[in-house]
Write a structure and sequence with these properties.
The protein has helices at 2-18, 43-50, 58-84, 91-114, 122-131, 154-165, 170-179, 198-205, 236-266, and strands spanning 32-36, 39-42, 140-150, 185-192, 212-217, 220-231. By secondary structure, the protein is α+β, with helices and mostly antiparallel strands. Strand 5 and strand 6 form a beta hairpin. The chain is extended.
Length: 321
């Protein structure tokens, strides 16, 4: 079954990439860049694949175009073998092709509709900058000691919280976890403000050096001790490109969500059988910006020597564990 799945996937990719190859009549000599058993591969196919790489300099583009062409040749060979063995009539392949076609058309429609979404105004960019001082004007670099309690249950979390309430240090907490045979991972990290979700950043910003906090994550409970922090603000001019990009993506995402919701509201949709209640919990499956998402800086501000100070100058705490 695994080999069959791999084979179907490989041929599917080949068919998707080269479905138009050899169709539409003769092509001008300058357009054809390779022939595989008489089937032509054109410069347009190479350029279409090249477009996915974004901006490349002349040397990079030359190397990439040759690699792409070799890949297209390999795909054409696979496509021919697939056709010879009637794999294009395999029910699983036909279903996968139809699914890919539906996905491509739906995505293309959304992207076409989103072309009309306006860019954020200067006022919107300014407002975002002002409303999020922890990311910009009051941005900091934080150094943490961490204890991650993986797969922790309510009883473990309660016990750890009890230790925190007693004012235990991170070392004391680690020793308690060991004595209770509770698995955990100890780590020390340095994170700038923009690498933390907003709701966590707000809590971290209220901590003082030496304080310990506890929060839940998708992997379990996380205990943090703030070891050091350094102010490293970002000006509005520095932050402008990143904020513009973030707000543009958010606008596009919100627009897509609204469009699909309109379609849902206008359509007659009926779920049946074992899926009769599916509509009650189904969420619109379009890319959406999460509330916790924050724009990354277009040009990361360099950390100064104080932010990279030798760990020996800090309380290592968990170094021996």
């Amino acid at each position: 079954m695994m080999n069959r799945s791999i084979r179907i996937l490989a041929v599917l990719l080949a068919i998707l990439a080269l479905g138009a190859c050899g169709k539409g009549g003769a092509k001008a000599g300058g357009q054809v860049v390779a022939k595989v058993n008489g089937e032509e591969i054109t410069i347009h196919q190479v350029n279409a694949a090249m477009a996915r790489f974004g901006k490349l300099d002349e040397a990079q583009a030359k190397v990439a175009s040759k690699q792409i062409l070799n890949g297209l040749v390999d795909q054409q060979l696979l496509l021919k073998k697939a056709a010879d063995t009637k794999l294009d009539r395999d029910p699983a392949v036909m279903q996968a092709l139809e699914g890919a076609k539906r996905q491509i058309l739906a995505q293309a429609y959304l992207e076409k509709m989103m072309l009309g979404v306006s860019k954020p105004s200067a006022g919107e960019v300014h407002d975002y900058y002002v409303q999020h001082p922890a990311l910009f004007e009051k941005r900091r670099i934080y150094r943490f000691q961490e204890l991650l309690l993986e797969n922790s249950n309510a009883e473990t979390v309660k016990g750890a919280k009890g230790q925190l309430d007693q004012g235990k240090s991170m070392r004391d907490l680690a020793q308690w976890l060991q004595s209770e045979k509770i698995p955990f991972k100890a780590n020390e990290t340095v994170k700038p403000a923009e690498q933390m979700p907003l709701e966590i950043l707000e809590r971290v910003q209220a901590l003082k050096v030496g304080q310990v906090g506890m929060m839940s994550t998708d992997k379990g409970a996380l205990i943090l001790s703030l070891v050091a922090m350094k102010d490293q603000p970002v000006t509005e001019e520095q932050a402008k490109p990143a904020i513009e990009s973030y707000l543009t993506n958010k606008k596009r995402s919100d627009f897509a969500q609204a469009e699909v919701k309109k379609m849902h509201d206008a359509a007659e949709i009926k779920y049946m059988g074992a899926f009769a209640d599916a509509g009650q919990s189904t969420k619109i499956a379009t890319p959406a910006a999460k509330a916790a998402d924050v724009p990354a800086l277009a040009s990361p501000v360099k950390q100064d020597a104080a932010a990279k100070s030798d760990k020996a100058a800090l309380d290592k705490g968990l170094g021996g564990l």
